[in-house]
Amino acid sequence: MRWSFTEHPASVGESYVGHLRSAFGFGVAMIRGGTACLVHGVLPFLHTTTGSRTVIRLHDRMITNRHSVSVTAAEPNGSPDPKT
Description:
The structure is a single chain. The protein is mainly α and 84 residues long. It has 3 helices and no strands. The protein has helices at 2-11, 16-42, 50-74. Helix 2 runs antiparallel to helix 3 (50-74). The longest helix is centred in the middle third of the chain and has 27 residues, at 16-42. InterPro entries: DUF6356. This is Capsule biosynthesis protein. It holds the Pfam family DUF6356.
């Protein structure tokens, strides 16, 4: 049972607690961005870029994190520089 809680976080280079924090951070940002989009739908002069900026920021965070994990996993010593 414990394996169920650690398999995915380990696959993305995070501990369970680190993954929990990251997921909660993403979730809160998505709720805020979604709420801004709903408000924008009713009042189009408000939050004109909040939703798109939220999506861009979250995409950048996820892709940057994924890239650093895949580089570390690909190198036997954890360093992208073969000299170290």
